[in-house]
Design a protein that fits this description.
Layout lengths: L2 H19 L6 H8 L3 H8 L2 H24 L6 H18 L1 H8 L11 H22 L7 H21 L5 H17 L12 H29 L1
Amino acid sequence: MTSYQRREQLIEIGRSLFASKGFEAVSVEEIAATAKVSKPIVYEHFGGKEGLYAVVVDREMRALTDTLINALSDPQAHPRQIVERTALALLTYVEENAEGFRVLTRDSPKTDPAGSFNSLLGDISIRVEDILTEAFKRQHLPAKGVPYYAQMLIGMTVYTCQYWADQRKLSKEQLAAHIVNLAWHGLSRMEAKPELRFESDKAAKEAEKQERREIKEIAKRERKAATEES
């Protein structure tokens, strides 16, 4: 086995172990034993567990970044098409790189040497904000909520993908359609000034007023009944 082949073997083994156990639970001894090499070979190629983890994460980050940027980068596409394309692109990545996705979304070392998954989502959110800004303008909605809606869409999609990675009862096309159904129809029917309907202070005050009115009405009926009896 050449040095390059050995390095690739260790990367594959590391990705699999980090995906199944998390960074902290994996040791250099386990990596070496799984590869059937001595510990010094692992240190020679990567300097230790941290170096191997950094290479694994860097590869997955680049692959996922390219996937999502490509899906988000067509200025001529209809906004719904971009939402569909992005959801499907992420699900395709999860389907084809299940271990890599688990590595990115599992707990990482305190000092992440290759850049965190959250930083990737931050970069993606900026592009989503640009798309939403245009959509908000068309619907005459205030733009100050755009960053929050971008985070909502990203969080909803990512956590759904995490669940789907372990519970694949739907095809990626079916799940993408569900994601788009909630995201797109939610966006297309947004209110310019959304309010809590039942749990706000305003709603609580209205409920109190209604309760007082009902109490007064009951008391009125009771007095009337008492008068009629007398």
